[in-house]
Amino acid sequence: MDDASSAPRPIEGTAYGRPQQHPNELLARVGPGTPCGEYMRRFWQPVLPSNLFTSRPRDVRILGEDLLAFRDGSGRPGLLYPRCMHRGTTLLYGHVEPDGIRCCYHGWKFAVDGTCLDQPCEPEGGLNKAAARQPWYPVQERYGMVWAYMGPPDKMPILPRYDCMEPLEEGEEYRAAVARIHGDPSLPEEMPYSWLHMNDNVMDPFHVQVLHTTFSGVQFVREFGIMPTVDFEYVPNGVIYKAYRKLDDGREVDRVSTWLVPHIMSVPSVVLAPGRSSGLGFSVPVDDTSSRILFTGRMKPNADRRAGTGLAKMKPWSEMTFEERQDTPGDYEAQVGQGPISLHSEEHLATSDRGIAMQRRMLERDIRKVMEGGDPEGVVFDPAQEMVHVPSGNFFREPAHAREPA
Ligand code: FES
Ligand SMILES: [Fe+2]
Hints:
This protein is α+β, with helices and mostly antiparallel strands. The protein has eight helices and 21 strands. The mean pLDDT is 95. The strands form five sheets. Strands 12, 13, 14, 15, 16, 17, 18, 19 and 21 form a nine-stranded antiparallel beta sheet that branches. It has a four-stranded antiparallel beta sheet with strand order 5-6-7-8, with no helix packed on it. It is globular and about 90 Å long. It has two domains: 43-140, 3-layer Sandwich (Rieske Iron-sulfur Protein), CATH 2.102.10.10; 163-374 and 384-398, Naphthalene 1,2-dioxygenase Alpha Subunit, Chain A, domain 1. The protein binds FE2/S2 (inorganic) cluster and fe (ii) ion. The site of FE2/S2 (inorganic) cluster has 9 residues, from loops.
């Protein structure tokens, strides 16, 4: 029998023979000498909160480089290449003194700018020590964090200021922190995936409705269950979205979030408190396959960022079973699920991803500009341009009758 009904039905779209997929190499590689790595190095990078630079030296990895963070006995933060220039042991076992850090092995001592201050095993403490220099990076402190410039010395820009961070209002202080999975402090400081995952997330207003509200239960507030109407716009140094919602009580709110080059995020209050955003986040590349999410904000002492959110009622992440995490995934699960580096060639960006497409276009344009010897947008050398405008906030519209002329 060979009538049509017995012929095998054609099947389509199976996984068989699918093409090899790959990340966007231009954006994903951040080590020294890579196009994006050189682009990133043109910006001051937030390294760690100031309170983690102490007299106890610690390792810190950033942009694919292993470095040593410490604070000398006079309070100056330092960021050095960790392998002692003498014979290469790590300065992690060094002891901090008022003017620098002394290597454990033969006692060479280095200031925060790498200057060699002592070589105790050498005649007269090192007749040639002035010629020795431990590789170092310049750092500055602002908004409760230590920032480093890891780029070409002749291209060092000014450290920008952000208008959402200033001035401190009555009773506020800068609170900087490394974000952990679901805010669980027992978990590692580093996320096991590319900086691009969280960088994409900030221009993705739609996952707030799905992942954070209707899929996993209310992780922030129930109002986010309303699907927003969204506009994306380019602004100086970045992209913003305006997510409009009409709430059940009749109020109307525009939730404006900002992404600024190279990986800066400003998200307004997640409990929909009215007003401008008072904080910044950073998706800092640790290397190609891991990232550190840093936050800093103006806050009152003891204020709890998660107060009033659904997250505050959840179990700490480390106490959840895998099944519980499957039932109520958050950003971490969604992003770890994308793999160490997403396979960008197999993505299907849709209309809801316009903001992400805009970010990537801007990054790719400026990475190429740096490759050709130019300066990227957002890097400034003129102190008159140091203040950056951050448009984020929850802006409630006036009721229509209040707008009508008297
Ligand atoms: S290895 Fe550091 S002083 Fe010798
Ligand atoms: Fe999210």
